[in-house]
Amino acid sequence: MTTARISGAGLGFRREMIPALKAGVPPPIDFFELAPENWAGMGGRSAKHLREFTERFPFVCHGLSLDLGGLRPLDVDLLERIGTFMRAHGMSLYTEHLSWCGDDGHLYDLLPIPCTGDAVRWVAGRIRQAQDILGLRLGIENASYYVAPPGAEMGEAEFIRAVIGEADCLLHLDVNNVYVNSRNFGFDPLAFIDALPLERTCYLHMAGHYVEPDGLLVDTHGAPVIDPVWALLDAVYARVGPQPTCLERDFNLPALDDLAGEVAQIAAAQGRCQPARKAT
Q: Does residue 255 lie in a domain region?
């Protein structure tokens, strides 16, 4: 199958959306994103439905359980299944969270990695192993977190830069995660973004979040994107250009037209962006 190029504005692909999408994909949607763990190796009606869309639209794989920061051996079987799945559907981009999510089993949560030199080398080695198996460069996503691990030897942005440099991988920049962390931990989101290796950016996420009664922000993917996050997206585009950007919505799903309206906002921001010129 021909590999499709990813560009424009996209939407997370969920089974609940399939009936509405089969009736007609709204024009703002250029591509879809899915979690390969939920689809690779699946047959029957679900596989048939997915094939109907991957033959018409580009898809991105965004992993949930590779456990790049964990101590267990990397799940080679999972990577091989994902590689086979991606080739079968013409998918060219696979991204994962810079986090750990396993112990004796899967923890179903994305936990922060201590920002240390040892962790840089450990995680980068696992990313390189994954890249060798898949035969492509991974995009590594900055994660939201709610407790900062002790023993930090560097800031989070410096840690991300070090991992990406050591692993020779790409940056998947989640704009809402930056905003959520900046509010919860009291830092300047733009200064954080400027400290990242933006030249490695391959992909962006936008999403909504929930505000707890005590003011804590929780990255839920269950609400509309708010104005400050839209403004942050404009600032990111001014720095990196209109990189392909996906709207994440995992529950409290509104009508497809409402989701398409947010995807259209992404497309509009891409259309008006003017990347900053490098000084000469």
A: yes
The average confidence (pLDDT) of the chain is: 92
**161 contacts 196 by C-beta, under 8 angstroms:** yes
- The backbone region for 108, taken as left when phi is positive above 0, alpha when psi lies in -120 to 50, beta otherwise, is left
Decide if 29 is inside a domain. Answer: yes
How far apart are the C-alpha atoms of 112 and 99, rounded to whole Å?
5
Is residue 200 a contact partner of residue 157, using CB atoms and an 8 Å limit?
no
* pLDDT at res. 279: 38
CATH number at residue 76: 3.20.20.150
Q: How far apart are CA 267 and CA 245, in angstroms?
A: 9
Asked if residue 4 is part of any domain, the answer here is: no
Which bin fits 116, alpha (ψ -120 to 50), beta or left (φ > 0)? beta
Alpha-carbon distance of 195 to 187, in angstroms, equals 12
Please give, one letter per residue, the 3-state secondary structure of 214-279.
CCCEECCCCCCCCHHHHHHHHHHHHHHCCCCEEEECCCCCCCHHHHHHHHHHHHHHHHHCCCCCCC
- Residue pLDDT, tens place only, 205-249: 999 999 999 999 999 999 999 999 999 999 999 999 999 999 999
Dihedral angle over CA of 109, 91, 14, 223, nearest 10? 60
* DSSP type of residue 64: S
SS3 category, 47: helix
